[in-house]
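Re-run with default settings, no changes from the original entry. Doing this only to confirm the output is reproducible before filing.
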Amino acid sequence: MTTQLTASSWASESVVFAGRLLTSWRRNPGVPIQGIIFPTALLVFYHLLAGKSMIAISGTDNLDSLVPMCALAGGMFGAIGAGLSLPTERATGLLSRFWTLPVHRASAITGRVLAETVRTFLGVALITAVGVTLGLRFHGSLLAIIPFLVLPVLVVVTFSLVVMTLALKSGGNAVFMWLGTSSVGLAFCSPGIAPVDSFPTWLQPVIQYQPLSPAIQAMHALSTGEPAFGLFLMAVAWVGVIAAIFGPLAVRNYRNAAESVR
């Protein structure tokens, strides 16, 4: 009976933990600044400053690729900002107290994933709305906006597992600097900034097959009405591979961190 009650309460307990995180992120300006304000400002300024140059170079202002790039970058930066609290929660024993509460053991970590999902979706929706204001249009089916919004959520939630794994393993500032630098590199060395063929020849294969490129290209295809199924599957494959590697690692590191302080 106890097991059944614990299993049936997993969802509601995860919602409670997610609500705690969403409340703390709302009070902490760092997370919304990194996850929403910075990428939105990047979108607006880059479009205003480089839009005409991109039209002269490629014949398009690249907005239908720039919006996906900013949406993904904002979600990743937000995940890094949210992960900054994990070393503190471990050091202060908060994770251990959560671990000993009479709740489902998985509810704390699934609550964090749920909170990341909500945060990312709201950020992507806002950045997309700003993109529409700047001139982004969906030339195919309006239903394409659903996978357009869902795909970056899948990518960022998977990236949050990477952040969680490394933050709980090391806990130093160096790991967040490394994650931030890597995120900037992935975002700016992508089709979101310019078409792949505009990069140096030796760099084009790296740009084409790095983890963010299929997602950006799939979102581009969804907004322009081009075939997106293959690109969408490639992006989901990247998500599946990374989740398969870092999902178990995140769970193991969370358990070790929670059990390390009594």
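DSSP finds twelve helices and no strands in the chain. The first helix runs from residue 2 to 8.
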